[in-house]
Every structure is written in C-alpha cells, then in structure tokens.
Specification:
By secondary structure, the chain is an alpha/beta fold. Helix content is about 30%, strand content about 20%.
Length: about 375
Amino acid sequence: MNFEYLNPVDETLLAHAKMQPNQTLGQLIEIYTTQNGFPDLANKKIALIGVQESRASVGNYGTGSNLDEIRKELYKLYSGNWPVHVADIGTIKQGSSVEDTYFALQSLISYLVKNQIIPIILGGSQDLTYPNYRAYDVLEQTVNMVSVDNKFNVGAIEDELTSESFLSKIVMNKPNNLFNFSNIGFQTYFNSQDEIDLLDSLFFDTYRLGEVTNSIQLVEPLMRDADIVSIDLSAIRSADAPANNNATPNGFSGSEICAISRYAGISDKVSSFGIYEYNAKFDVKNRTAQLIAQMIWYFIEGVNYRAKDYPFGLKDNYQKYIVPIDDQVLNFHKSNKSGRWWMEISLNENNKFKRHALIPCTYQDYISATNQEIPDRWIKTLKKLE
C-alpha cells in the first residue's frame, strides 16, 4: 500500500503529545510524523485518519479543518486498563477534486479493513461515508451500515453526491453491497414523509431520537450487526457539540453519544468508524473537540472489550431456545460469555446472505416471541432475503 495520500501529523503536535503525563494516549499512540516516520501497523488494531474535505458539505463549509484540535484533546486522555494498539497515521488533505479525496480514502480504508485494522475517520463532511462504503467492494460481501444522524440524507439518485444525498448513491450505485441500513436518532421534522416511507419500504431500521434517549440499550444490537458506523455531529445537541454550522438545540447529549460510541466499539463486526462535520471555527472553548476525543476513547475501550461471542462456534458457548409461533419456529441463541442474544433465520449453505442469518436482538425480543409476537427486525430481515 502506498501511503502517499497521507500527510504526517505536525511536529508541534508531536511535542504536545510528548509533554503529556505517562499513560496518556499522547504517550502511547504511535504517531506518524516527519521525525518518527510512518508507524508500524503490524500489531495495530486501530488507525486514526483525518480527512480535510468539505467541498460536498451542505451548510457546513470548512468542516474538516484544524483536526489537530481533536488530536490535542485525545492525546491528553489517560488510557483505560487495556492495551493501546493504536496508530495516528496522519491526514488526507483535500485533493485536486473531491473525487481524488474519495479515491485516497477508499484505497486507504480498503487496505486497513483487509488487514483487520479498524479505521477511525475524522471528517470532513459526511459524504465521505460513501467512499468508506465503497472501500468494502474489495471484500466482495454485503455490508450493514449504521448512521447516527438527525437526517436520513437520502437525496435523489440524480443529485450530486453531497453530505445530504449520499444514501441514495449507496443504495442505488453498483455494485450493490448494502444489506441493511439503520438510522439512529432521526428527528421527524428534518425528514420528509416520503423519505420516511421509502426507508420503511426498503425494510431499513429507523429510530427516532426520543426512542433512543428513552432506552439507549436499543443501540447495542444495531451496532452489533453493523460493519460501518457513520456519526454526523448534527445528531448531538448544539450545547454539547457547537462546532457544526448545522447544529440544532435537540439531539443526543455528550454522555449518550459516548455510550453509542462504546456500543460501536464492543461490536465484533464494526470494522470502520467515522465522525463527521467537525468545524473548528464554530467551536466554543474546544468543547466539541473534547467530546469527539472522548467518543474516540470510548470506541477504543469498546474494541478492547469485544466478547467475540458470535454463536457459530462450539455449542457449549451458548444456549439455544426454540420458540414455535403459528407455522414458524424461531431459534434464539444466548451467549454464555456475555449474555447477549441472537435470533436465527434458516438459510442454506450456498446463500450469499449467510453472514446475515443470525440477527442480534435483545432478551425482550425473546420474551415477545414467547408471547407469540414475531420481532420486527426478524420480519424485516426475512423480507430483505426474499
């Protein structure tokens, strides 16, 4: 892999990192600088990447600039009781065209994912989710995506690719690798009824802000089934994350978005994680940079506490529950290691959707099934397989 697209972290930031106390991330993360050279990725789990691209941003031009403010705050944080196999591999500066930036990001993510290194992408506008998605083409498998956002960003297929139209390109452009899309935290008044109906007709999962804030645990099974996680800072209330010209009064709190980031980290499947629409010129006392740094911290912690308990291993590692419902039989699996639940859809071995045969769920889904109510996510997944 040629890393020529990446620019090293500024030497003054390296000096800042080395001034931090022992056991802080600034002392423990391997940082790409002119002085140190490019990090050895052989034993790394996570790679931090900045992307300075805002030309396709809608309403938040300038996003992705001064990402070093996030790095400064991240380097100050103490690591948890876990190993830090993290590298900061610098920043992709905007290319001659937006497509050049997309190509650089897509190539880099493809390399990292193939080598089982999780990229944390710091944007830049959320249209960067599209090259993030396209990076999975090399894996030749269908993928699931979760977007944490107050909007769906569907757009029309004939629209230019922007931060508010990338979903239509993901759904419609070939190769069609998307199996499921989930939106967490949408606010109804920012989305047309046509868009809401469209996502429902595609059997995608959508959760309003109020649903999630009333029960943050709803996020866990969604993240457990995701390959790609894309977070728009617009999903966070402006009081907690002002560094975004599209910020609004309602949204997730700082503690809620950190919990969501940790759920993404502990998912055994999540293999790329992006935070978008940071615009330093709107920040107040580095409040947003601090919050993003803490989101990254929680994601890293989550990765280090992954249970690796996907129940296709030894039968002794999980319990199976069989629930007859009318003419259906639902099989549930509970991990002895983590207590997490899955429900099963029977597919033959040659089915290209075999990796989606086990659907993460909750104990409540099992209870609903015992009360003769088929869980909604089971029905939606079956519809997508037909």
